[in-house]
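Minutes, project check-in

Agenda point 3 was the complex the collaborators sent over. CS summarized: two entities, 420 residues total, and the question is how they sit relative to each other. Sequences were read into the notes so everyone works from the same version.
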Amino acid sequence: MGVEDKVPAGVLLSTVEGLFGYMRKASLWPATFGLACCAIEMMTTGAPRYDAARFGMEVFRASPRQADLMIVAGRVSQKMAPVLRQIYDQMPNPKWVLAMGVCASSGGMFNNYAIVQGVDHVVPVDMYLPGCPPRPEMLLDAFLKLHEDIKAGKLGSNRTALEAEQEQTALEAAPTLEMKGLLR
Amino acid sequence: MSEHQPENLPASVPGGDIAQPGTPEVVERREGMFGVRGTGDTSGFGRLRRDVEFPGASAKPYGGWFDEVAERVENLIGDDAIEKVVVDRGEITLHVKRERLVDVCRHLRDDAALRFEFFSGVSGVHYPSDEGRELHAVYHLLSITHNRRIRVEVSAPDADPHIPSVVGVYPAADWHERETWDFFGIVFDGHPALTRIQMPDDWPGHPQRKDYPLGGIDVEYKGATIPPPDTRRSYN
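CS then shared the predicted structure for the full assembly.
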C-alpha cells in the first residue's frame, strides 16, 4: 500500500506545493497602490467592518520590497505608468497583481489620451476585478478567488511546464475580436 | 462694512441694480457634436447648433462695489490697459492687455482699496476661431479684507503665445501657470521653471486645445469593437 498507511498516527502527509500554496495565500501582504477612487474602497475593505485582515491581508506594506500583492486601485495615467512598473519590479517573487476596478482592468470610463487602457499593458495581472468602484465585498471575493489560485500554484519543474503550456495556449488562442459563438 | 459679518460668508455680490453685459459677440457657431455633423440621424447630435459668445462690455455705472473697484483700477494704471469691463451674472471681469498684466496684478494686490491678495488660480481657454486672440488666460482673485472676487482675463495670439508671468506678484501662480502651459501652450515669460506638470515631460502637443484629439482607442469585445465616443456615430 501507499506510504500513508505505514505512517504512525499523528503525522500528516502533504505535498510541498500544497504547503507552500497554503502558507502563501494565508498571509498575502498587499502593497499600497491606491491611485484614485478605488483606493477608498480598498481602505474600507481594510477597515473594521469588512476587515481584510481576517483573510491574512494584515498590513498594507508601504514598501514594495515587503509586499506580495499589488492591488492597482484606480486609474493609471500615462505619467504614472513607469512608476507603477518600477514598484512592480521592486517587489520580490512570488508576487501577484490584482487590477481593482474597471480603470485598472481596461481604462474604465476614461477612453482618452491620458489614461492607460488597462494596467495589463504595463504589468502582468493575475486577477481582474470589475466595478466602479467595486464594493468591499467584491474586493474580498477577488481576494478569495486569488487565494484559490495561489493555493493551487505549482513549484519547480511543474511550474516551468505549466508556464510553457500557458504560453502555447496564448499564442494559439483567437484574439478577442475573432471569438465566435456565445459572447460570454 | 459697519455691521459685524459672520465668518465664512461667500464673496459679496452687490444686490439691487447691477449692470448687464452688452451685446454679445459671437465667436464661433458650433455644429454637431461627437463627430456627427449635418446629418439628420436619430442621435440628434448632427443638427445641434450652438453659438459661442463673449458677453459684451457693460456700460457704467456697474452697480455695487464694482464701480469703485473699476474706477480705482483705472486711476492707478490708466485707461489704456483695460480692454473691456464685463459685469455679467453678478461677477466682474477685467479684460487687460497682456503687457500690463503684472502691473495690474500688483496694484490689485497692494492698493488698500483693492487688496485682492488671494490668488485662486489661472487657467487657459482656447478659442481657435477668434483670430489673433486664440489663447486666453483667466485669473481669479479674491479679496479677503473686502470679501470680494474679481476676474482678470488676458489674451494672446496663437502665433505669439506669450503672457508675462505673475509669479512675482502671486507666488501661488507657479503651478497654475505650469498647468496652463502644459495644457494650452501659453508661455509665461519670467516663470522660474515652466515645465509640464500633468502630462509626462516629453508629451507632444497641448492636450486641452480644441484641435487636440481625444485619443481614445476602440474597445474590443468578443466579435465586435466599439469606437470611442467622439468617433462613434460618424457615418462618413
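Noted in discussion: The mean pLDDT of chain A is 91.
Follow-up: revisit at the next meeting once the mutant set is ready.
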